[in-house]
Amino acid sequence: MKPDSDLLDHLLHRRSTPPKCLASPAPDEATLQRILQAAESAPDHGGLHPWRFLVIEGEGLERLGEVFVEAMQRRDPAATEAVLERERERALRPPLIVAAIARRQPGHAKIPEIEQLLAAGTATHQVVLATEALGFGVVWLTGLRVYDEYVMQALGLAADETLIGLINIGTRTESAPTKGKKRRRAEVERWGD
């Protein structure tokens, strides 16, 4: 197999684009399907396919904003209108959000849950990499609203599913940072010497 230095360069220079720097257009349907197909080459012990993706755009983003507001009110009944409005706006910044969902099979005879979760995370990262490789801005967001039980319920997740991220996608604006954060060197030690 011929080495792919372009792929390595892409991995070394990958950067997240802040949601406020993502604008329309988002990928069209054919491009989005190609991006999501990148998940299929993720390592997947046992071929369980322990992930799925939920595409949120248009009016769905407005509904998601309302879900974020309700989740915040449940977490903090004293939340101010300004805080609630910020929550709503979080869903409206990018033109497209892909909810990444891990599907677990607890007690599987051969595949521990940790491997299922790692496969889902890897599939999600492949979607992030494919999005950027096709020239779009992207950021994988986590945090309180992602891990909130009310948000997962509102998105229709089953009992064996967990929301692992909200992938914000769009076209990078001119105000988007041109450099990623400073990278640390990988910690590498030799064992057995």
Q: Estimate percent helicity.
A: 40-55%
Radius of gyration: 18 Å
Note the gap between the termini. 31 Å
* Integer average pLDDT: 92
Largest sheet: 5 strands, antiparallel
Q: Can you write the helix and strand succession as a string?
A: HEHEHHEHEHHE
What class, by secondary structure content?
A: alpha+beta
Inertia-based shape: globular
Unreliable sequence segments:
none
How many H/I helical runs?
7
Q: Report the β-strand fraction as a percent range.
A: 15-25%
CATH architecture assignment of one domain: 3-Layer(aba) Sandwich
Q: Within the CATH hierarchy, at the fold level, what is the topology of one domain?
A: NADH Oxidase
What is the C-level CATH assignment of one domain?
Alpha Beta
Task: Tell me the number of strands.
Answer: 5
Find the CATH superfamily of one domain.
NADH Oxidase
Structural commentary:
This protein is an alpha+beta fold. The chain has a domain of about 120 residues: NADH Oxidase, CATH 3.40.109.10. Helix 3 runs antiparallel to helix 4. The longest helix has 21 residues. The mean pLDDT is about 90.
Gist?
The protein is an alpha+beta fold.
Give keywords.
single chain; 193 residues; alpha+beta; NADH Oxidase; five-stranded antiparallel β-sheet; globular
Helix-strand blueprint:
Elements: H1 5-13, E1 22-23, H2 29-37, E2 51-57, H3 59-75, H4 81-92, E3 96-103, H5 113-133, E4 137-141, H6 144-147, H7 149-154, E5 161-172
Antiparallel strand pairs: 1-5, 2-3, 3-5, 4-5
Helix pairs in contact: 2-5, 3-4
